[in-house]
Design brief:
The first copy, chain A, is α/β, with parallel strands linked by helices. Helix content of chain A is 39%, strand content 26%.
């Protein structure tokens, strides 16, 4: 492909996305492999250069687990949710806000842009509520397990993010929030990204994961373009499974609440973000209304 | 070259040029071959899409000559300057303003942007003065030849262009102006482009011609990057000759009066404008301070 | 009449018209006799001085005909409409845009204000559509005659005019426009003036003609003040005839679409424009709702 | 003179004065004869209509004297200055602020504009200082006479007037002010007008009096146009005498401190204000730099 | 009460009232006893210091009576309304506007803020209408008594007050206004304050009187907090009597028309205004919706 | 002291401080005893309520030490500076940013205002440089000890803080920053507070400590008011010793670089912040130019 063709293909996208809000969820290897994160942040800074307004949301499960183990605490999960006692919550908060979030902000600075790390507490961004206890069957008995400091989003107040975007900062959001009683809670980062995208009336929600997109049952083919109803069908028919289910339902819900489109793509492969955004063909899966 | 590489190379330029004023002189085949002009206008509209503020300046000598011949008038030149009597001036004005200029504006509309055609009269953009008569030797005798309606720029009042750029129009300038006595004059378009670039404090002045750039004496090599002092030396040493001399001295003068850089490149080859602006290597000659 | 009485009568009008948009159609001798045009432009500049926002619209039929004859082409008309082949259209465009329009702009400059000449192409001001062929009876046979490049206004996008007025320029409009397929068309100037007045929600539409106003059947009396329904009646009852019919129906249509009032007056007599606007009595015919 | 000639003469002045600040001192009969004041206020409202920003300053000596006599107090003067005890001051304040000032404001309202009456206290407009005692010779003895509540302007803080002008009100100023100790003082209105004109950097200072302008010694001729140095000479050479001296020196001082020009004219004759401002010839005396 | 407790109690009120409009009616001794007025103005300036936008409205009945008696005129009243002939009106206007109003403005200046004294004429603030004649029984006969220059408010045009507040001045309003025929009228100051509070959509209306608030029948207890319906009941049941009736009905009407709350308190006791506004307990009576 | 006296004393301060920037360093018990921090944040929110723009800076030494010990690491100090290896730095960052900073922000939310936690990385607020190694004598030998991740401020870029203050957030700063090579460094919080106060051109710098202010040698008396030269003398003469030296020299340096005044007071005693700011007497030590 000739350079001028790449450019002529890309320029209309660059214009179309100018000034638009894009929420990017960083997941998978991005948070662990330095080089991957570095490439992503480089691309994010380029997006901001050409006029987009980017919001990053990150998780940090593996690092929390690692830090817990280092401190001699064994992580426990129920239905994939971490049972989070007070001490665990303190570790999670320190890792998410003090290590990962602040680290991403430093990396943005190294690539020449200005990031601002925030948690759900900053500017009262997120109001959460504690999750209901889970019913677990141990032996013959069903018992209720309190998940501790694990929450769901009840409300997003996007004022601070809008204020930061207006001043050309890249907000970096750690998935931590208070509930109305002032209890600190850990929240699923995919959930946070989708809810923030809705609250900001974002143009796009992009999920950077470890796989190349939404794939068919035998993993031989990526779906490049699916509608929200097709996505719902796929989930219902069991074509989609595992960790992709929540991502896909998150995308569907975001679009139904006003987000323009949602993308799922592999963040581990160099500059996929640019290819997805600035070429006609793209590289991952786009979910559209 | 991979797509992501083209993009990563281009994006920083796109950012750097955002909001910058670029004056482009259209010359050579551009004004005659429809397809060439079409490609150039397509690129110009893309430049505007991604945030640049583009001003076009055009000439029209060949078309004036053609129209004159059609009307049974033989064009006469002295030192390459057209002797322009009142009737010739009327033809020139009609061709430049009524045909070429309005035609470029239509083409911009067809490519989805908004152009506004102006001459030096509009908004008092240009104040000119009549050129002094030329001394010519005919046989043994030296005689003075009055050039008629041929002028030089005395003053640029860029208010109207700034107003149009502010409102996101693409101004298209025909090289016609009044002198202080109200006499209408035809002016060299390269001159107009350079003076307007200076008056606008433009970021770049780009001259689209029929050759690939500034070339060495035996036309085997293009100079990709020359300084104003190198350019002056080349002219002095006779390395540069013919029609390139005024273009190059125009570029030098523009840069010395504050324009960021000047480019000379072949406008006849598809999308050279994009390659020159958005790749590290470029394709023509750049003149820098 | 004493000076102070003239002033006391005029000042309230000056205040009332301050900042108001007035569309003036220049017709008849104005475009041919230099002195008449000079007086009108002098008045127009005074109007702008005291705060009005003036838009000029001009035609140019006689000059197009003259230029065609000079180039050995015989003009042909059907139902008063010029049959406009490609070559004729090029002449019309050159005369209207390159000669008349640019000439008016020069004259405005000479009187100390700033004009900007535009055609329907500039800023996509006018979208036209080709007129349907006319049925003509030649001998016994009815045949269809294609008018060529003759159009009607389909849409006015007044953005550019508003932008120019905001910056205190006097827009001068040539009645040329593209249709949606990019075909260039010549349009009736009275029509253009009325449609632009409507699109700008103008305060007044003024038609400068060769007669003193709307007159009674035997041309002994001018009607000074008529309502739109009276005007419609006059046309219906055959009191009004000839070239005044389209002007009057144009005024009626403009007023019905929101223009405040419309005036028809003799532009050939010195400073009628001032008398009409700044005296209680006026001098031509005013059409009101 | 034909109507169009009056208009063509007036319109450039109307444009030139648009947005300019004009300080008008009302004196003489204006404050006593209702009809005269009514005509002046009518003209003032017209001036405001056409875009000028007018500030009125008034005196009120005759009315103060009348009210004092009504209350059985005999007015006393030293060197033309009223000896103003506490009781006299209260009467002066009530007459100036409560009667004359509020009356002018009502009259402005009746003519359709919005006035705001202010004294030097409002918005701390004026800071005054008590005048030094006067030396008087009674019989053989020289004695000092304290003038009481009589002051001179020390400082003008034009903020309130500018705020009112910005909002299109006509400020009407009564010549009363506090000194830095909070003592209320009566001040010469000519002085107040000149100082306010300077503080506002006014375009014109106009003094409406009972005579037709600055006249020659034998009162046979009005000087229509004098420079500040000619004016100074006239005063020095005794050509000017009596009440005109302070008016003329006031004008000179105002112009030397930046006011554009000063006019002295007869306010008792109908609409002189309009004639002076909007005709080439004028009607009173203009003092220029 | 410890200092920090007073502060912690006051600060939230200070914040809550920031930028809010408060209309304060000055009555009773305030206008007669210098020390009382001085304390009130000191408090008013403090209120403005901390960000409130204060409008003062004053009456002046006792001073008008005094001045009339000084001038040998006997005041006459019908139903508590002063019969106001032309001469009386002139005295009222001079006292209210020239003495009391200008005096309050001076006092504001002495305390370091900027006041602007206005009557209903300034900026056409108030449009009034003459009151209907009163029926009076003298001996056996009922006769109609014309009250002369006594009016009621017909319309408030709060533009000038808003303009002054925006520029941080304290407007001081004298209860004088023209009717639509240009007749000058004296108006009840409580009425003016309530109507202005409504027109400004004020946050609070505060009436400073000679009593401590709304009291029960035997004057042993102040009601600290009453609703508009309780207030209406009290009046109906005769618990409230005399001069308090119009104040209370005024408050009720203001609140019903959008004013946030109304306060009636003793202005003669030092700094009650501060206590009422900045303590939880308050000191007078607050009327709420 | 009566309530109105407290109010009259406080209101002028409230006005004076309105819109002013105040940098508060939280130290000592504030970070450890919940109730103390709660009282301080309550006061800080009140300050913001009444219009001040508050910036908080906190340290966290004791908590870092505690966390290190919990993780089995023994803290080491040289000249009072913590030797900070990579692992220690990670703990410091997690404690400062993830625990203390985010905790203060939560507390601000609980008191009804909006805080935003930032480190020196956010918005590139702080650029630091690594501290030089310290020379230490161990036994007979002098050896150099590298302090690791310990830095000094090289540059403050206050853009982000100004942006947050403009939008009415309370910025909470953790003393962590990158150097120009991207190395993360721990910085003394007193130093950060003083440098930020200078960069913001703050009105006040307030240091909340464990002692009542600057005391004389035998700790019997607090100095209430000292100049920067007196402070310098005290340090030179050894009157001041220990931890107070750096605080005092920090204050002196801040004032010399444009901060209005600096206060040192006991943050452990309830609402001292309010007393210091809003009473004439104050409660701690004020350092003035």
């Amino acid at each position: 492909m000739k350079r001028e063709e790449v450019l002529m293909e890309a320029l209309p996208y660059i214009r179309k996305f100018h000034g638009k809000i894009i929420v990017i969820k960083l997941g998978g290897h991005a948070m662990v492999e330095e080089e991957v994160l570095d490439t992503i942040i480089q691309d994010v800074v380029l997006l901001q250069y050409v006029g987009m307004r980017v919001v990053l949301v990150h998780g940090g499960g593996p690092e929390i687990t690692a830090k817990m183990e280092m401190m001699g605490k064994a992580p426990k999960f129920v239905e994939g949710l971490r049972i989070t006692d007070r001490e665990t919550m303190e570790i999670a908060q320190m890792v998410l806000v003090g290590k990962i979030n602040d680290g991403i902000v430093s990396l943005i600075a190294r690539h020449g842009a200005l990031g601002v790390g925030i948690s759900g507490n900053d500017g009262n961004l997120l109001i959460a509520q504690k999750m209901d206890p889970r019913k677990v069957v141990i032996g013959d008995e069903e018992t209720e397990v309190d998940l501790g400091h694990v929450g769901e989003i009840e409300e997003v107040r996007p004022g601070l993010i809008n204020d930061l975007l207006e001043k050309r900062y890249i907000p970096v959001v750690a998935p931590i929030a208070l509930d109305r009683q002032g209890m600190i809670l850990n929240i699923n980062a995919d959930h946070v990204a989708a809810e923030i995208a809705v609250a900001l009336n974002a143009f796009k929600l992009i999920s950077l994961t470890d796989v190349d997109g939404v794939m068919n049952e035998d993993r031989t083919r990526i779906y490049r373009r699916i509608t929200t109803s097709e996505a719902a069908e796929m989930v219902r028919d069991g074509i989609i499974a595992g960790g992709m289910i929540p991502k896909l339902t998150g995308c569907v819900s975001a679009i139904k609440n006003g987000v323009g489109s949602a993308h799922i793509l592999n963040g581990n492969k160099g500059h996929n973000l640019l290819i997805e955004l600035f070429t006609d063909e793209g590289i991952g899966t786009i979910v559209m209304p």
